[in-house]
Structures are given as C-alpha cells and as structure tokens.
Amino acid sequence: MSAIILFLAVLAVIAGWWLSQQRLTAKPWLEEGPIGDFPGGDAMTWPAAKVGLGVFLAVASTLFVLFISAYSMRMSVVDWRPLPIPRLLWVNTGVLVLSSVALQWSYVAARRDDAEGVMIGLLAGGASAVIFLAGQLLAWQRLGAAGYFVASNPANSFFYLLTAVHGLHLTGGLVALGRTSAKMWRGAEIADMRLSVELCAIYWHFLLLVWLVLLGLLTGWTDDFVNICRQLLS
Amino acid sequence: MVDIPYEGIPGIPPAEVPDVELYHPRSWWTRYVFSQDAKVIAIQYSLTATAIGLVALVLSWLMRLQLGFPGTFSFIDANQYLQFITMHGMIMVIYLLTALFLGGFGNYLIPLMVGARDMVFPYVNMLSYWVYLLAVLVLASTFFVPGGPTGAGWTLYPPQAILSGTPGQDWGIILMMSSLILFIIGFTMGGLNYVVTVLQARTRGMTLMRLPLTVWGIFTATVMALLAFPALFVASVMLLLDRLLGTSFFMPSLVEMGTLSKYGGGSPLLFQHLFWFFGHPEVYIVALPAFGIVSDLISTHARKNIFGYRMMVWAIVAIGALSFIVWAHHMYVSGMFPQFGYFFATTTLIIAIPTAIKVYNWVLTLWRGDIHLTVPMLFALGFIITFVNGGLTGLFLGNVVVDVPLSDTMFVVAHFHMVMGVAPIMVVLGAIYHWYPKITGRMLNQALGKFHFWVTFLGAYLIFFPMHYLGLLGVPRRYFELGDAAFIPSSAHSLNAFISVVALTVGFSQMVFLFNLAWSLFKGEASGGNPWRATTLEWQTPETPPGHGNWGKELPVVYRWAYDYSVPGAAEDFIPQNQPPHATQRVQGAAS
C-alpha cells in the first residue's frame, strides 16, 4: 500500500497548495460587502471542462496506483513467475507515442486556427490508438498461444488485467475523440473546438504516461523501485 | 456601492447566462424521467435510495426476529440469516447513505447553495443516476437468482466470499461485485459534477469561506469518495476475476469440500487492505455531509452564528485527510505486524481531535442561543448525543488491546450502528424536515414529526445501548444462534428479545414518517419561500420550489457569510447572504 500512500501524499500537497491560495484564514464574519473588497477565493480561470478532466485524471491515477499497489504486494509471494513480455509491446508503445504526438500536433494546429491540421491530427491520433488496441489484443493472443493463460500465474493475471484496464480507458477516450472529430467534420468553428482538442490531447498524454509506467512494471525495470517502496513502510 | 461592475473580471461568472446554455426539458419524459435538472436527479436519487433502504430495514426486522426468538420462525434458516446480514449492511452503507447524502442532498443543495443554475455537466449528472439505478436493480435482482444473494458479510472477505458453503456462491457474489462496480462508475460521474460545481460555478461573491458548512461537508466527502471508491473498484474487479476466471489474486491454496481447489498463493490480506482503504474513508464520506448539514441546522434553529466557522472548515478538511491513514484499525485481528497496529491506533486517536472540536463547536453554538425546538433541531440534538456516544466507543475500539477481545462481538455492532447508522440517519431525517418546505412548498406535520423523533431517538437508544452490554459479555456478532454457551447468561437472551421488540416497534414507526411525507405533499401547510428565516441562498430563490435554472433572470450576488443570525443592531434576526450591506435595516438608534 506504500505506492498509494505516496501518491495520495502528492495529491495532498497539490490540494494543500491550492487551499493555501484560498484565504482559509479569512474571518468571514468580519467581511461584509462585495467581493472586490476581499481578494482570493474566486473560481479558477480554467474552463469547467478542463477542471473536470483534471479531477477525473486524479481519480483514474488513483485507480492505476491502487492496481500497482496490489501488484507490488502480490508480487512478493513465492508463486510469482514473471512472464516474457512479447516484443510486439514495443511496437505498440511506439504506436501509442505516435498517437500522442498526432494529438499534440492537432492541438498546436488548433491554436494556429489551422482546421485541416486539426483534422489530420485527430484522425491520425485516433487511427494509431485503434492500431495500438489491436496490437494489444494481438499480444494477448500470442501470449495465450504460448500457454500464458490468465489464471495460470498471478503475473499473467496482472498482465492481462492491467493491459485491459488501460485499454478500456483508451477506448473511452476514443469515444470523446470520435465526438470531437465528428463535430470538426461537420464544420464547427475552430475556436469552439480548441478546448475539446486540448482535452483529448491531455488525456492521450496521460494514458501514454500510464502505459509507460505499466510497461516498466510489467517488464520488471521498476522492480528495484517497487522493492524500495515496499521496504519504506514495512 | 450598489452596482459594482463585475463583468469581465476573470473567474467570476456573468450575472446572466445566455438562454441556449441552459438545458431545457422538451417533453414530460425529459422533464421528470430523463431529466438533466439537478433537483429532479436529487429526488430520483433520494427515492431510489429510500426504496432500497426500506428493503434493508425489513431485512433487519427478519434478523431481529431470529436473534430475539431463535427457533420460532421456521422460514429463517442459517443461510438466509447470513444473506440478510450481508444485504442489510451493504445496502445501508453504500446504496442508502452514500447515495442519499451525495446523490440526493448533494444534487439538490450544491447548485442552490453556491448560487449556480445547475451542475456544470448536467448530462453526465443524469447518466450518474441511471447507472446508480442499474446498480440498485442488479443488487435487488440477487434476491431472485438461484442461490439467492451472497451471505459473505458486507466486507466480502475472501476466501470464504467465493467458496462453496457461503450462500449465494453461484450468482449472488457475482452480481454483488457487478453492482458495486456499476455503483462506483455512476458515483464517479456524479462526484465529478459535485466537485467541479463547487470549484467553478460559485456565484459572484461566494468565496470558499462564505460557503455554508453543508457544502463544505458534501464537497470534502465527495473528494474523499472519488479517491476511496477506486480501492473498492480494484478489490471488486480482482475478486470477480478470482471467482469467474479462477485467477489467484486473493485466493490462497486450500482444500474445498475435500478436494484441493484450483487456487494458490493469493493473499486474503491484500483484499482486506484494499477493502478498508475504501471502507474507513467511507465512514467519513457518510459522516462529513452529516457534520455539515447538522452545523447549518443548529445555527439556523438556534438563531446564532456557528461557533468557530474557520475551525469547522479546517476540521472537515483535516478529518478528510486523516481518514486515509487509519484503515488498518479494522484489521487488528488479521495477524498483521504488531507495530502497524501501534501506528494505526495513534492515527485513529488523532482523528478524535478535529472531531471533538466539531462537537464542542456545536455545543458552543447552542450556548445562549435562541433555541427553537423544531423537529429539525430535535434531530440535530439527537445526532450530537448519539454521535458522541458512538465516537466514545470508537476510542475503545481504536486501541489494539481493547479491540482484540471486543472484536467480532455485539459491542462492535453497537458502536458502528450508533456512530454511522443512527447518527447519520438522524441528520438525514432532520434535513428532510428542514428542506422539505423548499422542495415541495409545504411544511411537514409538526406533531407527527415530534412523535417520529421521540420514538426514533429513544428507540435507537433502547436498541443499541444494551448491545454494548451484550458485547462486553462476549456475545458474538453474525451468529445465527447463540446455543447454550456457558458465558452467555439467560438474561442476555431476554435482552435480545427485548431489543427485537423495540426494533420492530421503531421500524414500524417510520411508517408514520412516510405517511407524513405523502400526506404533507398535498395537505401540508403552505410554507412560503423561507419558513425557517434562514440566511443561505437556497431559501432566497424567487420561486418555491425553485424553478428551472434556480434563479430568475440574474444570479444572486453574495455579500456575507452564511451565518448572519442575530446580528447586533440589525432589525431582523437573520440577514440573507445576498442582502447588500446598505439594505440591512438597523434598529433605531443603533450605530450603523
């Protein structure tokens, strides 16, 4: 459980920093009058959808970190046999990086009012995300064919579980990406679409980051780090 | 001084929202069924939660029948008894209390109290309710599937939860997990709304430190729930995979019905960590909205500003943060490393400090107040008493050496029913008596309300106070029958019968309340917009019940905090939050 505690400590620092900007030491019973007289405590200047995505990313990160906590606890039992990571995963990782780059491209294009560039970026990002998902399914199939079934070892179970949860999050993102692309396709004003494109790009970068962390975990690169974390609290 | 130009200041919402931005219901279906209006969603959440809560109430009667008069009722067997326990606990904690406080009160009160027209993502808010309803239906369906609902206990500990021998092993446990997963997905959608609405949609002048404590309580509880429910999600998914695909996340190797099972190596302790990482914050997810609401009830009905508002806010935030590092005090008997117990006992006892600050502040708010013993006030007072009682036994159980002998006895049952059963329900009932006039435009009947309060309050004490004694005797919880154990005197059996009679009486007396709700809807005295002469924004709406978009053409502007009651020099004993300073009438001769 040390991973989740560390993660929550980071969240607590962010929340504490934000709260410290909110004049929580004000004495509201003395402050009668309009807001102009009392600075601070206004809503953030970000649009609500962006704040909403930020909160959602915190929740999704909590979910992944909890899976990682469970992974590191279960890993220490003797029956754990790491499975060979299919090489295909490296190709998939490359495709997911491309997907993220394409959406960043789209976002940059949106800021320059380049409708064509936005559309190309969205389509390229969506297509490469679909290819990534197909590649993940293919990796599952290869592992299954090689005899690494979901229930034959906890390492396998976690491999399938973590990739599935990540894939489902990406699928959810594809729904949002599809809606954004459809709106662009129907010729929406680019100024109205800038936020949607930005949010898609942020979500994609987040999922790329999650994937890289999961990949590190599944390939065993982060074993030393996991061990350090485990020893921290025991 | 009157018209300060706010337009164009970043972060301050404009006074008028263009009409297209508001969601408009176009038909009966989208107005009352698939509505995106937070007020309708709130009522849908509340009615669904109450309906499934009544099922859980009936289950508790059945359990009490068996405990009070063992062997008398042939239609209750040991398996069913375990199923009743499980479903009663799960429904009451998650599907009733969590859904009612956050989905019900949160949806109704947050937009009104912060001066918003609606939640920021109305469509997602609507989805949240429908996913919640689906979760409730999946849960309720387990009563009708082969094998019935799961009897694993509400904590669903593996390995027993998914092994044969536990009732509901076929379908019950699978549907329970599915229902929990759905509930968490639905809650996350709603929770995003509650948090972002408080952050982004506050009206002009509504700084965080001018928020009513109700909003602070619900807001903090929602943040906690968003971070704690993923742990239950992870545990549910992994347990479901253990059951369905034969993985061994939690399942150790064991012999089941004489044969070696397919499982091996899994860690039941891992499940307990995940479950209680959710389970302990859950206690405060239910308690913090109750703390917030009760603060507002006491202040309004004692006509006095809340004592130590800042301290109350800080205490809410501190309790929220601390509640994430106490979970293992539910696991003292799990065989964990002893020094862990020492750490968790310390954090558990530290949480008593902000909680005690809140209790002192409520009492100090009452001190020399102009106390109106209305029904909401009675329930608020009932809450303080039961909560202190349950909190004190919590200090007992938080200590490892006291907890170990009391673990799994009726003492624990008495403790958590007092602290997170009766106490929050007192607040729920008080809050319904308080806000019913705003929701319907009519008052609930006072006489029936007072009868309801006294029966519920005294009854709850008669039920749960003797249970502490049973627990100290060593009477175990979760047992279908006590049998002829030497350490259980016959007086314990008659006490059990007594508790059962009272429980049934109190349970039936809730029908008076349901009758009152229905009768007052049509025949109740008209309340007007602000019957309690309260300061917060929801009482200042142009229409009662609040119309579509909550406010008229312009959003309210907030000039003061939420607790300007009995202000010296003011003519009225309350000043609404949206009343400008120059509009306050002063007593003749008082310095302005």
Automatic annotation (TrEMBL), chain B:
A Pfam family that the UniProt record links to this protein: COX1
GO MF annotation terms: cytochrome-c oxidase activity; heme binding
GO biological process, one term: aerobic respiration
GO cellular component, one term: membrane
Protein's cellular compartments: Membrane
InterPro entries to which the protein is assigned, alphabetical: Cyt_c_oxase-like_su1_dom (IPR023616), Cyt_c_oxase-like_su1_sf (IPR036927), Cyt_C_Oxase_1 (IPR000883), Cyt_c_Oxase_su1_BS (IPR023615)
Sorted UniProt keywords: Electron transport, Heme, Iron, Membrane, Metal-binding, Respiratory chain, Transmembrane, Transmembrane helix, Transport
TM spans (from-to): 40-62, 82-110, 130-151, 171-192, 213-241, 274-295, 307-328, 340-363, 375-398, 410-433, 453-475, 495-519
Limits of the Cytochrome oxidase subunit I profile domain: 23-559
Superkingdom classification of source: Bacteria
Membrane topology of the entry: Multi-pass membrane protein
PANTHER family from the UniProt entry: CYTOCHROME C OXIDASE SUBUNIT 1
Similarity remark: Belongs to the heme-copper respiratory oxidase family.
Protein name: Cytochrome C oxidase
